[in-house]
Specification:
The protein is an alpha/beta fold. The chain folds into two domains: 68 residues, Alpha-Beta Plaits, CATH 3.30.70; 272 residues, Alpha-Beta Barrel (TIM Barrel), CATH 3.20.20. Helices cover 35% and strands 20% of the residues. The chain is built from 13 helices and 15 strands. The strands form three sheets. Strands 7, 8, 9, 10, 11, 12, 13, 14 and 15 form a nine-stranded parallel sheet that branches. Strands 2-3-1-4 form a four-stranded antiparallel sheet. Strands 5-6 form a two-stranded antiparallel ribbon. α7 links the parallel β11 and β12. α3 runs parallel beside α4 and α6 crosses α7. It is elongated, with a radius of gyration of 24 Å. The C terminus is likely disordered. The structure holds phosphoenolpyruvate and manganese (II) ion.
């Protein structure tokens, strides 16, 4: 398979013109182009063409060669190099894309029908246009609540259909992909599964949009390569989610890497959203992190809400409560306006003018 990339050959300061010509000729012989930049102390040769041919050349062993560096990114389908225009992913009929701001909200875990319905109503009140909820939970401890599984999926499906919004839910094993894809509008691959390559392929093949969380210790490149796995199946409906990374700092659950948002947006055409709940891990940090996420240019937010967090079976301390909903809604509107983003609203809200009322309240 042809693999277009850019490689750079760094010549030693002592390299002769004949050494440089030898590299240039070898590249030309395999159909590539070599661009020679003669610096004061060193010459650099940029190679453009088919990497599969270059990699057969023992460039490191050529006289006068100091180093051979591959420059181009290894991902292709999700890269801005191949697809410079940002893409919009549609979940149900709700867009997530570069010039808008989409709120996804709901309970961390589906616990009961009442709790799920209450949390999803709160989410709608805050202006969420996509609901979230975990039926299959990836828990650090085997003694923690593992989620209700298929029964939880059915509860969330019923609640979401009653409310009239699409929903995203996590799938933790390949065995559950078909079951989850039959009901959910978007499949979530959690942080702990970001490099579960078989799962990435199978969620890709489901044809459903995928929310791909960044691994706790994944670099941006590794995260984007995981997205490339999904795209490789022909499914480009992928949304990246920055949810905090593991650092030495214990005062937050994870460190929200706000820089990763514009970095990922410059490298890929995929939308990038932020999870301020799993990163901060504390209710009082969620609103400040939401503000920073909007300011840094996130394409959306995914937020945990719970009607009684003190009773939550999963992640209660980070869940926003009923009293936070109006504040969340107004913060989204206010910050989005300042940052030239349009908050994605539901058609029915637009018709009855609920957003207009809220914005001026
Ligand atoms: C979640 O969203 O419920 C979750 C488990 O998130 P993460 O994979 O980012 O920890
Ligand atoms: Mn959680």
């Amino acid at each position: 398979m042809r693999e277009d990339t850019t490689m750079v050959v760094v010549m030693r300061g002592s390299a002769s013109s004949a050494d440089i010509d030898k590299v240039v000729k070898a590249i030309a012989d395999v159909g590539g182009d070599a661009f020679v930049s003669r610096g004061k102390n060193q010459t650099i040769i940029g190679l453009v063409g088919d990497l599969t041919h270059f990699s057969e050349l023992p460039l490191h062993a050529f006289p006068g060669v100091e180093d051979v560096i591959r420059v181009s990114k290894p991902y292709k389908l999700v890269s801005t190099e191949t697809h410079p225009r940002p893409s919009t992913v549609t979940v149900g009929d709700v867009p997530i894309g570069r010039d808008s701001l989409t709120l996804i909200a709901g309970p961390c875990a589906v616990e009961t029908e009442e709790q799920t319905a209450a949390a999803c109503r709160m989410a709608r009140e805050a202006g969420a246009t996509i609901l979230r909820g975990g039926a299959y939970k990836p828990r650090t401890s085997p003694y923690s609540f593992q989620g209700l599984g298929e029964a939880g999926l059915d509860i969330l499906h019923g609640v979401a259909r009653d409310i009239g919004l699409p929903f995203v839910t996590e799938v933790v094993t390949t065995a559950d992909v078909d079951t989850v894809a039959a009901k959910a509008d978007m499949l979530q691959v959690g942080a702990r599964n970001m490099q579960n390559f078989q799962l990435l392929k199978e969620v890709g093949m489901s044809g459903k949009p995928v929310l791909l969380k960044r691994g706790l210790n994944a670099t941006v490149d590794e995260w984007i390569m995981a997205a490339e796995y999904i795209a490789h199946t022909g499914n480009l409906q992928v949304v990246l989610c920055e949810r905090g990374i593991r650092t030495y700092e214990p005062s937050t659950r994870f460190t929200l890497d706000v820089s990763a948002v514009p970095v990922a947006q410059s490298l890929t055409h995929l939308p990038v959203i932020v999870d301020p709940s799993h990163s901060g891990g504390k209710r009082e940090l969620v609103m400040p992190l939401i503000r920073s996420a909007i300011a840094v240019g996130a394409d959306g937010l995914i937020v945990d809400v719970h009607p009684r967090p003190e009773l939550a079976l999963c992640d209660g301390p980070q869940a926003l409560v009923q009293d936070d909903m109006i504040h969340l809604r107004e913060t989204m509107l206010r910050f989005a306006r300042v940052c030239d983003r349009e908050v994605v609203t539901r058609e029915q809200d637009r018709r009855v003018g609920a957003w207009g009322r809220s914005a001026s309240a």
